[in-house]
Amino acid sequence: MSLSIRKQNAKENKFGAQVPYGDPTWYQEWNSPYFNDSHKRFRTAMREFVDSEIIPYCAEWDENRKIPREVYKKCADAGWLAGVIGFWPSQYAGTKIAGGVRPEEWDTFHELILVDELARCGSAGVCWGLCVGLTIGLPPVLHFGSKYLQDKVCKPCLMGEKVICLAVTEPYAGSDVANLRTTAVKSEDGKHYIVNGEKKWITNGVFADFFTVAVRTGGSGMGGLSFLLLERSMPGITTRQMQCQGVWSSGTTYITFEDVKV
Fold first, then answer.
1. What DSSP letter does each residue of 121-181 carry, written as one string?
2. Dihedral sign for Cα atoms in the order 169, 172, 173, 175
3. Each residue of 140-199: pLDDT tens digit?
4. I need a surface site. Which of 63, 173, 201, 247 has the fewest CB within 10 A?
5. Pick from 137, 130, 207: which is nearest to 167 by CA?
6. Is 65 helix (H, G, I), strand (E, B) or coil?
7. Which residues pair with 97 in a beta bridge?
8. Residue 235 to residue 258: CA distance in whole angstroms
C-alpha cells in the first residue's frame, strides 16, 4: 500500500487496503459496537509487526520446515503471543500488550484481530507453527493443572521461551477420541505412570518441550481418559516430522511413547 493511501486512510479513520471484503468491514469504518480505540491500537501494532517480522520470512521458514526459536520470543516481547489462548493471563505473561492495551481491556475481539492480522502472512504453516500448540496445548495445564505444573510450564510457554503441543490424535483414532489406545499404567511402586502409545498429526510436536497428552488410565470409553504432561527430556519419547503436502513450518509430527516414566 502506498504512503499516500495510508495517509488518506488515516485522515478518514480507515485502515488497510480498503478492498471490499479483503479486510474486515470495520476496517472501512462500517459501524460496529464491538471495537473501540484499544482494538484499533492493537490492530495497528499487529499489522506493523506482521509486515516487518513475519511476512518477509514466511517462504524461508516454510522451506526450512521450522520457525526459528527466537521468533517465538520476539512475538512474546512484542506483546501478543499470549493472546492466542483466549484471555490474557497477566500472572504468567506480564502486562505488556501490543498497542498499549491493558490486560483488563483484553477481549475476544482483540484475539480476532490477532488472527486476522497474522493470517495476512499467507502461510497456514507459519500461523499454526506460532500459535496452535500454545492455543490448544496450554489451556488444559492453565485451567486444570496443579500449581506446580502451572508455574513450571505457563510462563516459559507464554513468554516464547518454550513450546508446548497437544497430543490427542492417534494413527487409529483421529476424531474417535473416546477409543484412543495410548495407555498410562501405574508403576509397581505407585509413584509414576508408564506411558506407551503413538500420536499422529501433532502440530508443533517435533519442536515441543512439553506435551499435553491424552492417555487411557481407566476402562474403555471416554470415562477412562486422562491428561498427563510429559517433557521432552523424559526417556522414551521419539518425535518424527511428517512429510506433509503443506503447512511445513507447523511441524506436523508422529510421536512414539515407549515406557515413558511420568
1. T--HHHHHHHHHHHHHHSHHHHHHS-HHHHHHHHHHHHTTSS-EEEE--BTTBSS-GGG--
2. positive
3. 999 999 999 999 999 999 999 999 999 999 998 778 899 999 999 999 999 999 999 999
4. 63
5. 137
6. coil
7. none
8. 8
